[in-house]
Structure formats: C-alpha cells, structure tokens
Amino acid sequence: MTLEHTPGGLIGRSVRRVEDPVLITGKGCYVDDVQMPGMLHLAFLRSPYPHATIRSIQVQAAQAMPGVVAVVTGDDLSQHLHIPVTPFNIPGAPLMPDVKVPPHPLLARGAVHAVGVPVAAVVAHSRALAQDAADAITVDYATLPAVVTTAQALAPGAPLAREELDSNVCYRVTKHGGDVDQAFAAADHIVRLRLASPRLVAMALEPRGVLAKPEPTGDLTVWLSTQSPHRARADLATAIGVPEHRLRVIAPDVGGGFGSKGPLYREEALACHLALRVGRPIKWVATRGEEFLSTNQGRDQIMTSELALTRDGTMLGLKVHVVANLGAYPHTVSAIPPQFMMIMAPGCYQIRHCRVEVVAVLTNTVATGPYRGAGRPEAVLTIERLVDQAARGLGLDRLAIRRKNFIRPEQFPYRTALDVEYDSGDYEKALTEALRLADYDQMLQDRDVARARGELVGVGVSTFVEPSSGVGFFESGTVRVERTGEITVLTGASAHGQGHATVFAQVVADQLRLSMEHVVVRHGDTLAVPQGVGTFASRSAVMGGGALALATQRLVEKARRIAAYLLEAAVDDIVQSEGGFAVAGVPDRHVPWRQIAATAYGRPVPDLEPGLQETVFFAPGREAWSFGAHVALVRIDRETGEPRLATLVLVDDCGVMLNPRIVAGQVHGGVAQGLGEAFYEQMRYSDEGQPLTGSLLDYAVPRASHMPPLILGETVTPNPFHPLGVKGVGEAGCNGAPAAIANAVMDALAPLGVDHIDMPYTALKLWEAIQAAPGPRKQ
C-alpha cells in the first residue's frame, strides 16, 4: 500500500542537497584524509605480464631498505587468505550449472594471469618508501600464451587463461519462454545483428583506498572506499579469517563508485591482514594507474541477436546470444551483468517467444563487473537496434513499429516470455512526451534539408525498461526519535554521491510532519547501522526509501498511542498535526514530538515498551521497473568523421519523484557516462594482453565541454507495489541514451549504405566507415 503524502509536504520538492556544502568546499573526509599515529603505508609490485609462471622472487634488497617494516609474497601467506568468490545469480535468471571459479589469492602464487596482478607487497613508514622498496623486488617470470578476447578464449585449442581449470568458460546458461522455433518458422522477416559493447573503466574521481587500524581489544576498524560496508565486512571476514563481529567497516565520504567499489579487493584485504600482523595502522590508496590495472571494469560483451516479425511489423520471436568477458580474476559480482539479458531482452515489447543464451568467458585481462547500468545498456542496445533494423528492412516507420508492439498500460502487471513481471508502465505516453519535447517532426524535416545539402545528419530514438534491484535483496532502515524530539535516521544504503542525506530526510520528515532540519541521516558504519546491503543498481530510493517509509509508519503508530495517553483521548481520535499529534477536530489539544519522546523514554505508558525507534528490513520480493524514451540528433563531419551530439531529449519515468532536482542530477550523470561509452571510451589491449589505454593519456573520457544541452522531461507512473510509489533512475542515462545515439549515428550514415558500426563512435572509426561506404560519399 502506498503511503499518503502530506499535501504541500516534502515529497516531490526539489530541495537542495544538504550534503553538498561540505563536499564542494573541500571539507569532506575521504579514506586518504584519515590519519593515524604510527600509520604505515602499503605498496605493491605488480606483474608486467598477462600470463606467466613465477620462477622466483628476490626480496632481499627491499627488506634491507631503511623504513621497511615488512615484505611479503604469495608464498608467505596462508592459502586460506583469498577473496571469496561465489558467482551471483540475479533473480529471474536461471541457476548457473558447473560454474568454474578460479582461485583469487591476495598475492599471486606460482603464476600471474593479468597485467597488474600484485606479486609482492611492502609495508613501510611512507608511501614513497613503500613503493621504492616494491620496485626493488625482482621477479623471474616464464611467460605463457595469453587469451585477451572472448573469440580467442573460445577458439578450438585456445590456451587456458587459468591453468587450474579445464576450460575458459566460466558458465553457460540458457533461458527461454514460448515456442521460439515455431515463431521463427512463421516469420515473414528476420533481422540479424551482431553488437559489441566496449570495455569501460569506471573512473571514479576517488580511487580505491583502505585504512586498517588494529584495536587494543583485538578488533579491527577499517575505513574503506566502498559502496557496500556490510557486504565488504562479511567478505573481509572470510578473506582474512577474522570473525565478522570483530570487524568494523566505515565508509567515509566516497568519491564515486559506479559499481566498481561494490566488491572487496585483494589489496584491501591484504592491508587488513598485515595491519593485524604488524599491530599498526596500514593505509593503501590506489594510484590512477593502479585503478586501470586492478579495479573491475565494465561491459565487454558480444551480443548476437535475431528478431522475427510478420510483414506488418508484429514481433513474434527473439533470440539473443551473449558472450561476456569476465577477465582473469572474477569477483562474485562479475557474473551479474551478462545475466540481465535474461530478464530484459524483450524490452518494452510484447514478444511472446524468446530465448537467451549467455556464455561467460575467462581471459587474461582485468576482471569485469557491474558498471553503471551493469548489463542493462547492452540489453537496451540490442533490442532497440534490432527494432530500427527491422523497421528499415520492412519499410515501416520506426515509431509505428514500436507503438504496434508496446505492452499496453492495461496489461500491467505484465509477465514477459522470460517469466519476469513488470509492475507498471505507459510506454506510449513516455514516447509521445519525448517526441513533443524534441519537436520530432521538425527535427526530421531539418535532417532532410541538411541531407539535401550533403550533410550527414541522423535522428535516433530508444524506448526502454530497466529494473531497480529489489528481488533477492533487502535494505535496512531505522528511524529513532531522540529524547529531545530530534530524529536520527540510519540506513544500510551507503551513499557515494546520490543524495541520501537529503532524500531520506525528506521521506522521514514528510511522514513525521516535521521540517528537514530536525532529521539527520547516518550511514556507512557497520557498528552503528543495522545490517544493510548497500548502494548500487538504482536501488536506493526503492529499497532504502521503502525501508524508511515503513519504519516511519510504524513509529508514527506507536507515537499515536503515546499521544492518546498524554491527551487522554482514544487512539482513533488522534491525528497527525504539524510537529506532533492532536485530537481530531480540536487542534488546540496538541502534543509535540519532544513531549512524546520524553514520555517514551521516561514514565511508562500502559501496554507499550519504552523507547521510540523502529527498524525495518525491507524486502519487496519484486523488481521496480522504470522506463523511458530518449531522442538524439547527431551530426557527422564528412571530411573528418567528427560526430556531434546536437540534441538529446530524455523522458524518464521513475514513478513518484521524491526530489526532482536529484532525479535530474542522476539523469545528467548517467548521460555523461553513456556519452563516454557512445563516443569516447574503450579499454583496449594488444593481442598479447598488454593494456593499450592504461592511463588518461590514452583513455578518453568525456569532458564538460562535450556535454550537449539536455532536454529533460518525465512521466509519472507510480509503482503500485511500493510504499512510496517509487522506481529507480540512477542508471537511466546510461541505459537509454547510448541506444538512441547509436540509432541516430546509423540513421546519419544510412544514405551511404552503412548499417552498423560498434561503439565508441570515434572520429577515426566514422571517417573510415565513410571512406569505405558502398554508397555515395558526396551528394
């Protein structure tokens, strides 16, 4: 049941973010800002080879350097010290049989399987000294053949990326619904497409970092740049063999994560182990170069797909085959992104027969994992490019074919051919609003006029759905009224830029009929916050907000009974009023929260426990399905291939918007990263496995000057299964915009006979396509 919102209240207001003044004035506290007396520093010697055996390691020179406290190699560590890896099944995806999980030691033992794998570690009095000592270590390697791409890894007779295993396939799984073969047999037209999504670097402004401090009690306090403090603590307990209740993990200010800071990494676990071993605090903060070589990367999937249709454009069946590159040392979360195709493949459309196969492959590269979107952009790109290709092949209007096959509003909740239930939606409404904001008909006329002058101009559209992870997860929320009547909120959702301190205060203050100044939000400390899951997958408003909404509702009901006791009235006659409670129809008979709290913690109220605090572990048991429609206008310079995104219109529906200003900020951020994928970014390796774009000299990220003017709109379709009516929005820009841009680029090149190019759409790639085009290069 959706809670009633206070008319004129805080829900839906564009309140300015309360956390920003500290951050933008340089007063934030990140891991590297935390200092400890007697603190030591950790540095690593990393492998220069993608695949090699370790013949010997000479550490004597490093050990002899003044200020060096410890030098360790893999052979010095117990084999029980490892990163726990249990490939995760997303809800709705079938179980993965015969999963091959390679060992993930804290330091390489016997062999290395990717450039950048840590081979030895040094603890010293300063960061520079630790790195100098690490550089003094010498290693004798015997190189082995490496596999870099999924095609290489799957080739007959291919070398093994991990020699401990008998295959380069980590897992293979298929999901289907309906009679796919019959649907294709009955089709008048079949469109086929092969897409490759580029490997991306998360590039959080703050690199990963950890500070581990042993306590006199034998406990360990850990400051960690993480998206999931409680999950990190659980994995850390397994990794280093310390009971979870002896570990305290604190996520201070975190400078971005985008999925890459979800798992626990070996450097972080080793810092904790060595801190306990030497009995002093140890800090490690990655350099930007180490981020390129050791932090999970994103995408790197090949999607081969077929869409079967009738002559009039009715979609009958869909086949998708995904091959995903997981790298050499996958984490638990690495299995997640490819699986999203198994719940998202049909997109917004009524395709009743569908089959998806996913093959996840090990290679001698950096591990991949969730990165903003985490498999959703690949699913949206696949179906939206197929739909455009189908429209072109059938001679149909691309909007008409979408509208013909949309799931209709009255069909919700709608169960797809892949046995996934969408909660609510009005896809036609979102598309219509996007076309209105884009002035779509005029946009097409302007395109055609420009084409008549010989210019390359294209218009692209994408319509999409996206889940906000709720199934299979929970989130905790605690609302406590202090003795003075002030409110403390504890959330298991750990912020790293999303605006939790603002939005969650709005939710609680709105339900309590208080101003936000009376509410403070705390998170990111496993000692203070009940067990939580964390922040990722567009889940914070859905999961964290849902937990706090229900906790607040329970707290209000208890406070109502205390108010009835104080006002000597029946509970049913007590209503909420501004700042407290009153007797219905007699507003002068009012009791404020301060008095209610004093009573809750003071004299006993009959039949009520003392205190005024409620905790909820919210587990809705279903996904919240957001959706949207994006429109892009792209111009390409014929002479240089330089693309320019002239217009981008984004209409997103995330249900009830708790704070439209923050929603807009999330869309802007997602678009920036979506544009990076579309135009600039790609982590590349040589055929031998050496990184070719391992620094910001070579890896291009979008700058502020690259961002086009954005036209934002929204429709509001409340989530009927959520107490606040919300859905997620943090990844909408990453999910929908690249597909619209891809369709616009292909539309621009269509007059030349070019029907497909993979992202990123760099000037060189487009120039080469123009030169090689079968159609006329000049008009």
Commentary on this structure:
By secondary structure, the protein is an alpha+beta fold. The strands form 7 sheets. A 7-stranded mixed sheet has the order 3-5-1-12-9-10-11. The protein is globular, with a radius of gyration of 28 Å.
Main beta-sheet annotation: 7 strands, mixed
Report the radius of gyration as a whole number of Å: 28 Å
Walk across the major sheet and give the strand order.
3-5-1-12-9-10-11
Q: CA-to-CA gap between the ends?
A: 60 Å
DSSP helix count? Answer: 20
Nearest-integer average pLDDT:
95
Task: Tell me the strand percentage band.
Answer: 15-25%
Helix content: 25-40%
Structural class: alpha+beta
Write a short abstract of this structure.
28% of the residues lie in helices and 25% in strands.
